[in-house]
Amino acid sequence: MEYINQFDLTGKHALVTGGGKGLGFATAKALVENGASVTIVGRNEALLRSACEELGQKSTYKVVDLANLSVIPAFIKEVEEQIGAIDILVNNAGINLKKEAINVTDEEFSEIIKVNQQAVFAVTREVAKFMLQRERGSIVMISSMAAQYGLPKVVAYTASKTAIEGMTRSLAVELSPSGIRVNCIAPGFIATDMSAKALNNDPERKAKVMGRTPMGKLGEPADIGYAVVYLASNAAKYVTGVVLCVDGGNSIGF
C-alpha cells in the first residue's frame, strides 16, 4: 500500500502576515519545511528580506502596511496575480498595548481594533473571494490566551482577539460549504524575545504563568508553526471552526 503523507503541503502557496519574525516566521518556516511555498508580509523590508534568506527559495515577501485598510483589496489581487493563488492564509500580524484600562484612549483602542480585527477581516474577505472561485482553501487565525481568560492591562488586545475567535466560527459556517476551512490557534506563553523580555522583567507574572501551566514550561515558536501545518493540511480536512489552544495546558490549568 502506498504511503501518503497527509501533512505534505507540496504545491500549496501560503500567505503569512507578520511573517518576518516571531511566531509568523516560525509558521512560515514550518510551512516551507512541509513543502509549501510561502509569501511573508510585513512593514519592514529589511526584516522580511533577511527572513526570506533564511527560509530559502520557496519564500518571497511583500511589503505592506495592513493598518491601511484601503490598500488591502489591491494588495491581495497583486499577490494572486504576480505570485500565485493563495491556498493557505495565516492571519498572524497584530499589535499589543499594555496599559491600565482606565488610561487607554479611544485612539489607542481603535488602533488595536483596526490592526488586529478589521485588517484581519479585510485580508480574509479578499482572499476568500479568490478561494471561493476555486472552492478550496484553508484560513488560520491567530488568537491568544487573552481570549481564553482575563488578563489585566490588555483590554483592547483582549477585545480584538476575542473577536477573532467569534469571527473564526462565523466564517467557518459561511465558507466551509464552499470548501474553505477556517480555524484558529490560541497560543499560550511562547518563548519569543518579546515574551522573554516581558516575563523576565516581571518575576511575579512569570511565576503565575508557570504555576498555571501544567507542562511547566514555555512553548517554542515551532509549536505554533506545526499546529498551523496541521490545520492547513489534508490531515485536518474535516476540521473547521475550531480554536486550538497550543499552550501546555495553560488555558485549563488551576
From TrEMBL:
<dbReference type="Pfam" id="PF13561">
    <property type="entry name" value="adh_short_C2"/>
</dbReference>
<keyword id="KW-0560">Oxidoreductase</keyword>
<dbReference type="InterPro" id="IPR020904">
    <property type="entry name" value="Sc_DH/Rdtase_CS"/>
</dbReference>
<dbReference type="InterPro" id="IPR002347">
    <property type="entry name" value="SDR_fam"/>
</dbReference>
<protein>
    <submittedName>
        <fullName>Glucose 1-dehydrogenase</fullName>
        <ecNumber>1.1.1.47</ecNumber>
    </submittedName>
</protein>
<dbReference type="GO" id="GO:0047936">
    <property type="term" value="F:glucose 1-dehydrogenase [NAD(P)+] activity"/>
</dbReference>
<dbReference type="InterPro" id="IPR036291">
    <property type="entry name" value="NAD(P)-bd_dom_sf"/>
</dbReference>
<comment type="similarity">
    <text>Belongs to the short-chain dehydrogenases/reductases (SDR) family.</text>
</comment>
